[in-house]
Write a structure and sequence with these properties.
This protein is about 80% helix and about 0% strand. By secondary structure, it is an all-alpha fold.
């Protein structure tokens, strides 16, 4: 709320300053004031953003705490990955693409993408331990450490590979005829290419996994699972960006460059109606995905998660570029630069956190089920990527400005050095203190889903057994009525609403023990029911014998 109020207070001041600037200041005075305004907004925004994080990760709502950690993790990972890729790509452009032809530029971009894709595949195979001969016995602590290392490299290299794919197919999109149909066809082409590459690597992984001992061990299963998820994320990032590029051409009338950037005049020319259209189109993506999950029950193993990633990420890109259009048209009508990038990042952050808060309230309703929860998790992850991308744009602009003042090295080398230093500062903290929290939440969700599936299967089995029995007896009814897993989960969720995160986790652990105790009681109840049935049967036989003796 404080961050949103800060944005609301800053925007009118910026608009007033932009309106008074023309004709009343010299060029040097305007530059000085713009610089001071940018530094001031960065200072205020950074303090509000940092303190807002403390409030969010200590929120009384356990789900908001979980979503906040997920957003923080996605923001830092995408920020680091994109910043590093942009620096490396700048080096590639300065080395190979000076005055190069379009065909050569496309070839270099494709090779650049393939190199990152191959590095991703090898790194995940190496850090998973799948390249080691034979099955390695590891303790629980060693397994958790290996999983943490594997997923950290998967997330970072996956995001870098995704933006390398965006760059490669974005360059190709710039070279096709600038029509809606032609530019849109690049998106499914990118999907098909990356999907084929992932299928080829899937066969390679299977051959490697079975090549040493003829079977797939636990580490090799984890390797395959994490790699498939990462490949799906790569497809989601690349295809969604290319789709939104076409939507911006359709709505705005111009196709942005391969990085999604427009000229200052072009960015400021989009009206509020065009902004609204882009928001409506982005929102319709989510609505379509919700309807699909509610009414289309069957899923394809790889294609359905990829489609979900594309749809949700398309929504996030639409929100980001719609925010950029609105600020450029209404606030930054004359000067674009660092100040605009910071304000865009702050605005996007406020919008994203507000959406997450509303989604959490919607998820708490009793009518929502596991399908809606899955969509909410995907939206939260996409919004985290959105926030990370917006802040990366700010830091990328800052790195470019700083590199212009450093004359010791060429600009592209200064940018690379600064990017590497920032990544070395941020990534270790993310890997050591943030990512383990995310993995803890993921494991808790997996265990909860597993318990719900087991409970559901058990109830279905008992129902079939009761239906197969002849006749009806009160003794056939269970002494302890089993509750719905969904209702149990909702009750547990509501009971943790007003607790701190530590208290919520402790209560969740206690609830898990109670659920295990209930399962044990139900098993004992079933044993008692069987004993009662046998007792009734023996009693009936004794009664028959008594009747016979009486007649005799």
């Amino acid at each position: 709320v404080a961050l949103a109020l800060l944005v609301v207070l800053v925007l009118p001041a910026l608009a007033l300053g932009e309106g008074q600037k023309e004709g009343k200041e010299t060029e040097d005075e305007a530059i000085t004031k713009a610089t001071n305004a940018g530094i001031s907004i960065m200072l205020l925004g950074s303090v509000a953003f940092m303190m807002g994080l403390f409030y969010l990760v200590n929120h009384p709502d356990a789900d908001m705490v979980k979503y906040s950690w997920q957003v923080i993790s996605s923001t830092i990972s995408i920020f680091s990955a994109v910043l590093l890729f942009q620096a490396v790509n700048g080096l590639v452009e300065a080395t190979f693409l000076e005055d190069a032809s379009e065909g050569f530029e496309l070839a270099v971009s494709i090779v650049h993408f393939l190199l990152w894709f191959c590095l991703l595949q090898y790194a995940l195979a190496y850090f998973s331990g799948a390249l080691e001969k034979g099955e390695q016995e590891k303790g629980k602590e060693a397994e958790e450490k290996a999983e943490l290392q594997l997923k950290s490299y998967a997330i970072l290299l996956g995001h870098i590979t995704g933006f390398a794919a965006i760059n490669a197919f974005g360059v190709f999109q710039q070279q096709v005829p600038k029509t809606v149909v032609c530019t849109f066809m690049v998106a499914p082409l990118a999907w098909v290419v990356v999907f084929i590459l992932s299928q080829v690597m899937d066969h390679v992984r299977d051959s490697v996994a079975r090549g040493d001992d003829g079977k797939v061990d636990k580490s090799e299963e984890l390797w395959d699972e994490v790699t498939e998820e990462t490949e799906d994320d790569v497809i989601g990032l690349a295809v969604s960006f290319l789709v939104v590029q076409t939507l911006r051409l359709l709505v705005g009338g111009t196709l942005p460059n391969a990085e999604g950037e427009e000229s200052e005049e072009g960015s400021s020319s989009h009206s509020n109606w065009q902004v609204l259209m882009l928001v409506v189109i982005g929102t319709s993506f989510v609505l379509v995905e919700v309807l699909r999950m509610l009414y289309i029950k069957f899923e394809f193993p790889r294609l359905t998660p990829q489609m979900r990633n594309i749809v949700i990420m398309s929504f996030s890109w639409c929100i980001f570029f719609a925010t950029d259009w609105w600020l450029s048209y209404n606030i930054f009508t004359q000067n674009h630069g660092m100040t605009k990038e910071v304000v865009v990042a702050l605005t996007v952050t406020a919008i994203a956190m507000t959406e997450i808060f509303l989604l959490d309230k919607f998820a708490d309703l009793p009518v929502t089920g596991s399908h809606v929860d899955a969509i909410i998790r995907a939206v939260v992850r996409a919004l985290g990527i959105l926030i990370g991308f917006s802040w990366e744009k700010s830091f990328d602009t800052a790195v470019v400005e700083v590199s212009g003042f450093v004359k010791v090295l060429p600009d592209h080398l200064v940018k690379l050095v600064l990017a590497v230093l920032l990544v070395l500062l941020v990534v270790p903290a993310w890997r050591l203190y943030i990512l383990p929290t995310i993995l803890m939440y993921e494991k808790a969700e997996e265990e909860e889903e597993k318990r719900e599936e087991e409970q559901k299967e058990k109830e279905e089995k008992e129902e079939k057994e009761r239906e197969s029995e002849e006749g009806f007896s009160p003794l056939n009814q269970p002494l302890l009525a089993s509750g719905s897993p969904t209702n149990s989960r909702r009750l547990k969720h509501k009971s943790m609403k007003m607790l701190s995160p530590a208290e919520g986790l402790a209560l969740q652990s206690k609830c898990d023990r109670y659920e295990e105790h209930i399962v044990s009681l139900e098993e004992r109840n079933k044993g008692l029911e069987d004993s009662l049935q046998e007792f009734v049967h023996e009693l009936s036989e004794l009664q028959q014998m008594a009747d016979i003796l009486k007649k005799a």
